[in-house]
């Protein structure tokens, strides 16, 4: 493997907490020899040099050039191999002052530390065999998670849920390859590929790979969220329902038709899915409204077109107007029979009955939104991927297995089929990082923040 373009053995330093004034800041130092380097600028040099792993040493950082105090700090010491990076490392807890942090960094740079690259601590953890690539990616995913569900899923991945799944896939393939490769050593035995490779096993494995790859859309949904728009005729109760979702009196509600002009939006979480909810201007049939209202309706049209899901409200006390449901996209529309508390009759077929005033049907509505957006119900223990890289490699692996099946059907020779089997295996190896190029690694970790 080509090596990383920068030296990953040098001692590095970075601020691990956010840039900004805070009570405490955390700086991370890592790399062979970083403890003695730090001890050179520490008031209790001996204590730091002798500190056992996983202990804290209190003292003052000092600029050795001037003898001036830099900051009062606490150092958490990790001896060789036991820190996050799998190297000798120190976490420095300092005061969270921006000029103070700058001074610490300058002092340590002068002692021979270099600034860490983005994600370099996690990259080193990977290079030192502390974590595989799926766990390394999970670290980035935890930090950037936008909802509790996304956070929980990423944490699950950090605990190795994806790694274990991939490992079990690899085990299956490894056994097959072992049998096949032994046979390739004895070309004089005329054993066909079909005799050695059970089509059903390949089919099953291919199915499992595809299922895991398909969880990517769910992973994305919980991470990036979805756009949900409220739509319907004027006075259907869109703004009332919007306010119920956001749990505040955000959008103006009145019994005057055409109350909402410009669309209003808010961020919220529906059963763990980050959602941007839009309240839009009500649609009128035949009547035109004034210029401002027409512009509002035009803009609302753009919002509904872009939305992942449209909640189309019908006022249950007046019912469905002729032709009003025409032109709605059934694939992304959820029909709501609002004002169930004063409706003339039960919700027609295909409608969900709700009341924005009494809250009736609201829990079911949330459940339905969640189901429609994610398509599947995610169990707490289920492995869900949130990395395009992993998705593409799973697809590549499944495609190679499809080639294996084609080869078997066409009666291809064993060595030809083996090439595809190996490719399926390599793609899985790339997911966990056994056969990943330096370019891929650098690209992946460059998207992390500095200090992680
Ligand atoms: N009884 C009852 N009244 C409701 C319900 N939802 C809305 N209303 C009333 O219906 C009227 C219109 O509600 P809005 O929420 O402003 O309706 P809208 O769809 O936003 O209307 P526009 O902004 O004009 O398009 C108000 O008087 C609400 O109090 C409901 O579930 N039950
Ligand atoms: Mg409104």
From TrEMBL:
Task: List, alphabetically, the CDD domains matched.
Answer: trmE, TrmE_N
Q: Name one Pfam family in it.
A: TrmE_N
Keywords assigned by UniProt?
Cytoplasm, GTP-binding, Hydrolase, Magnesium, Metal-binding, Nucleotide-binding, Potassium, tRNA processing
Subcellular location per UniProt equals: Cytoplasm
The EC number(s) given in the record are 3.6.-.-
Q: Which GO terms describe its biological process?
A: tRNA methylation; tRNA wobble uridine modification
Residue numbers binding GTP: 235-240, 254-260, 279-282, 338-341
Where along this sequence does the record place binding of Mg(2+)?
A: 239, 260
Instruction: Fill in the subunit field for this protein.
Output: Homodimer. Heterotetramer of two MnmE and two MnmG subunits.
The family assignment reads:
Belongs to the TRAFAC class TrmE-Era-EngA-EngB-Septin-like GTPase superfamily. TrmE GTPase family.
Q: What is this protein's name?
A: tRNA modification GTPase MnmE
Organism this protein belongs to: Marispirochaeta aestuarii
Q: Which gene encodes it?
A: mnmE
